[in-house]
Amino acid sequence: MTVAAASGEDRALIERFLEMMAAEAGAARNTLAAYGRDLAGASESLGGKLAEADAATLKRLGEQWLPLARSSVARKSSALRRFFVFLAEEKLRPDNPSDALPRPGGARPLPRTLDHGDVDRLFAEIERRLSIERSVPNLRLSALVELLYGSGLRATELVSLPRHLVRRDQPYLILRGKGGRERLVPVSDRARAAVREYAATLSKEESYLFPSGKAHLSRIRLFQLLRNLAADAGISPDRVSPHVLRHAFATHLLEGGADLRALQTMLGHADIATTQIYTHVDSRRLVELVNQRHPLADPK
């Protein structure tokens, strides 16, 4: 089953959602195809009214999946949950009824991330470009990557930043993220310096820090810029996306000893269980700590 199987408004919204998943989360082609099939199937089951479904309707839909394997139910539920989060974030509906969907048990997949060497190669490529020409596109890319990796912003938050929000004397941003929750986001000296040099190239009439036409830079264009940067840095473009750099921000902070609660605040997670997925990266550091610092560790 393809997206074309969905009808009317559902089809257009599903296509927009898949476009977002490709741009912001760097979803692979097979993943996008699976999401498309699951959403089209749900739309067909609901007579083309998936986007309008309420909690009771989704509960009944979930009950139809009971004969399926647990992994299939988990996949379908995940696709629909992401779809309804997208609709709510884009203000295409005022609520998110997806809590009514089944939640079969199972391990949560670990986030894709980059190691320190990968990040170093990305920044080395940016420096190489800037050493050749400190052009507006190169300065913009530098500011984008510094904010993505240095502050852990979501792609949507980054591209839609108001121009005035990053200030010379303020080492943090106050953002309104998912669910309308405000959070404090740190901005490093490096990021502020990169933004300052880039912002100096903008017209005083610009409302957005990263303008494009009459609006702001799109998530798709941001995704394309990062993939091109990765390719030139000698990294497989499939491994790099805005979401992967957000994961790298969280992973490397935790490796460096950051407090999980502080990380939760910086990432804007409503539930610390979401943040705890990053503790998988800490296992190597904890083993080294025990081997080096435990009283019974071999002094050699």
Tell me the total number of β-strands.
4
In CATH's first tier, which class of the largest domain applies? Mainly Alpha
Radius of gyration: 21 Å
Shape, principal axes of CA atoms: globular
- Work out the helicity level: 40-55%
Structural class: mainly alpha
CATH topology label of the largest domain: hpI Integrase, Chain A
Query: What is the CATH architecture term of the largest domain?
Result: Orthogonal Bundle
The H-and-E topology, N to C, reads as HHHHHHHEEHEEHHHHH
Q: Which properties best describe this structure?
A:
300 residues; mainly alpha; DNA polymerase, domain 1; two-stranded antiparallel sheet; two-stranded antiparallel ribbon; 55% helix
Please tell me about this protein's structure.
It is built from 13 helices and 4 strands. It has a two-stranded antiparallel ribbon with strand order 1-2. Helix 1 (8-24) runs antiparallel to helix 2 and helix 2 (29-45) crosses helix 4. The radius of gyration is 21 Å and the shape is globular. It has 2 domains: 3-100, DNA polymerase, domain 1 (Orthogonal Bundle); 116-285, hpI Integrase, Chain A. Helices cover 55% and strands 5% of the residues. It has helices at 8-24, 29-45, 55-64, 70-89, 116-132, 136-151, 155-159, 189-199, 219-232, 242-255, 260-267, 272-275, 283-293, and strands at residues 172-176, 182-186, 211-212, 215-216. It is mostly helical. Strand 3 and strand 4 form a beta hairpin.
